[in-house]
Write a structure and sequence with these properties.
411 residues, four-stranded antiparallel β-sheet, three-stranded mixed β-sheet, 14 helices, 11 strands
Length: 411
């Protein structure tokens, strides 16, 4: 921002009219459709297809909606939308937004033709809801992306890539229509020798392995994906073979390869994941605050006790701080500002840790009631823990931030 712009008072934290209207619309769906169904689908541990269908009918579950928010001018469209969705429920929320990671992997690294062909097939439409899955983690390669063993070998005779390996912790894994798989094309290069591949619907050799029974986000399908001689057309290499060959050639000559595809995807998504955590945290803080003003013990509302009021004060301050860190990172990403101090990691780290802490405090405020499934705070606490684990654990985020702020090779 220029000095003139600052002098004119153009800096603002007010949302635009369009974003506010979108926020209220999404909140209405979260309050009236998602939240009432949350406990049922958490118990069932199944993908909530009826909720996805309802969202598709109104245009909430659609490539158009998510693209509109992703490209919203201020950068705040996606975090605002995701906060409201996850305020409704994190498990259902991840079913509604899980395809976005695969979409980001293709849209941020793929060709215009790949974006136009495959992104619509990750969402479908009313009456024909579809899913996408981003498959990066492996049994021996979670935070250590460089340890990926899934191989991709090019068959020049047929212009096909042959994929073999096992992926794990894949949201929508095995049930998705389109899978985006990170594989090694040159194991000697570690993460620099990796690329992403689109596996079209119905491709032979791709199957679902173990479906995981989880502590939280149980309405979201998480499973292994087994790749057994999976053949995909050459055009399914994200970004194209010419781009890959040029990158590998630079490496062979000792040059710089550029960002690794999977890490680029995760970096772009960190403020979005932070917004998810803010939504869960806000839900717990709002519920605990309302409970503290209504619950009477020893002749007064429990919120009149400093022990409760001070706890609520810290909870509210933490959620607001997490949101502001998230908005900063999202704004920077949208306007092309480099995360020179790992601002994306800061947002995810703080928001994830905040969600775990305030949901636990909410249980404490509700006491015995908070520990039962009759009240939603125990589910929110179970859901919150994932935000310190997936798409880079809190420890990994601290390492990234530490490297950025010190300039040292922190390990």
């Amino acid at each position: 921002m220029s000095d003139d712009e600052q002098a004119s008072g153009s800096f603002t934290l007010d949302l635009s009219d369009d974003v506010r209207q979108m926020r209220d619309w999404v909140h209405d769906f979260a309050a009236n459709v998602i939240r009432p169904a949350a406990a049922e689908w958490d118990e069932r541990e199944e993908t909530p297809w009826p909720i996805l269908e309802e969202a598709a009918k109104i245009g909430l579950y659609s490539i158009e909606f998510f693209a509109e928010q992703w490209f919203e001018a201020t950068g705040l469209g996606t975090p605002v939308a995701f906060e409201e969705i996850y305020w409704g429920d994190a498990g259902i929320g991840l079913s509604l937004t899980g395809s976005c990671l695969a979409a980001v992997a293709v849209s941020s690294n793929g060709t215009p033709e790949q974006i136009g062909e495959w992104l619509p097939q990750m969402f479908g439409g009313p009456g024909d809801v579809k899913l996408g899955a981003f498959c990066s983690s492996e049994p021996d390669a979670g935070s250590d992306v460089g340890a990926i063993r899934t191989r991709a070998v090019y068959d020049q005779a047929t212009d096909e890539w042959v994929l073999n390996g096992t992926k794990t912790w894949a949201t929508n894994g095995g049930i998705a229509d389109v899978h985006v798989v990170v594989a090694s094309v040159d194991p000697a290069l570690g993460s620099r020798g990796q690329a992403s591949f689109i596996v079209p619907p119905g491709t032979k050799g791709l199957s679902q392995g173990q479906k995981f029974r989880k502590l939280g986000i149980r309405a979201s399908h998480t499973a292994e994906v087994v790749l057994d001689d999976v053949r995909v057309p050459g055009r399914c290499l994200v970004g194209g073979k010419e781009k890959l060959d040029a990158r590998l050639a630079r490496l062979a000559e000792g040059g710089v390869a550029g960002e690794q595809a999977a890490m680029k995807t995760f970096e772009a998504s960190r403020p979005t994941v932070a917004a998810m955590a803010v939504g869960v945290a806000r839900a717990a803080v709002e519920y605990a605050t309302e409970y503290a003003t209504q619950r009477v013990q020893f002749g007064k509302q429990i919120g009149q006790n400093q022990g409760i009021a001070f706890m609520l004060a810290d909870m509210h301050a933490s959620v607001d701080a997490a949101r502001l860190l998230t908005w900063r990172a999202a704004w920077m990403a949208r306007h092309g500002h480099k995360f020179s101090r790992a601002e994306g990691s800061m947002s995810k780290l703080f928001a994830g840790e905040t969600a775990v802490r305030v949901t636990e405090q909410a249980i404490q405020i509700l006491g015995g009631n908070g520990y039962t499934r009759e009240y939603p705070v125990e589910r929110w606490h179970r859901d919150a823990k994932i935000f310190t684990i997936f798409e880079g654990t809190s420890e990994i985020q601290r390492m990234i931030i530490g490297r950025a702020v010190t300039g040292l090779d922190v390990r």
